[in-house]
Amino acid sequence: MAVKVSLKELIQAGAHFGHQSKRWNPKMAEYLHSVKDGVHVFDLTQTKVLLEEALSVLKKTAKEGKKILFLGTKKQAKKKIEEVAKASDSYFVNERWLGGTLTNFDQIKKSVSKLAEMKSKTEKGEYKSFTKKERLLIEREVARLERFFGGIADIATTPDLLIIIDIKREKSAVKEAQMKGIPIVAIVDSNCDPYGIDYPIPMNDDATRAISYVLDLMSEAILEGKRKKSSKSKTSSTSSSSRTRKEKSVEKNKK
Description:
Elements: H1 7-12, E1 17-20, E2 32-36, E3 39-42, H2 44-63, E4 68-71, H3 78-87, E5 91-93, H4 105-123, H5 132-149, E6 161-165, H6 171-180, E7 184-188, E8 199-202, H7 208-254
Parallel strand pairs: 4-5, 4-6, 6-7, 7-8
Antiparallel strand pairs: 1-3, 2-3
């Protein structure tokens, strides 16, 4: 069952408002409906179609057991990014995007491993013999690493798909994903260049309600895909067990 997108919800959330017309990117022209009071207005009928396409891709990606990474560091998105990523058992980055996260992944894994090691030692009380000042420095380092890498702490390889809120702000992540051939699903506002974004969702990327609405839909699509993957695995397992029982029965009859 497909996740339903509501035009009414998009309008109520303010998804249709772009930036001032003088700040637009002409490459976004095909997604715009008009100009009102000097502000571009999105054609939400197109937004709905493209959003539904993106949700279908997320569902399929999750069903195939692939890794999805949410990225959003602006204040309107960062809290919601963490919430939906955790709810859908996905990965996330909601602090500063560190250069090389995708293109120099081995180095990122070292930082992630360092975080895991320091947290483990803390839990085991291995820092108890350290001075108060040393323990304070260790606590600060763990907090820093957790802030930057907590959302990707157990990721073993680069993600299979990247979801981005505000591609102008996260332009370095866009470039890295393009270099690595990682598909991008992204909200693109009227001042953005949609070129190279595999699944653009043309709409307001500053309105908190609009961002939250779309992220909730994304989480729902991912969870639906994972449920179908789980259901398929159980069916396959049951079918395999049934075949095994039949094979044993045939062999017994032969004897």
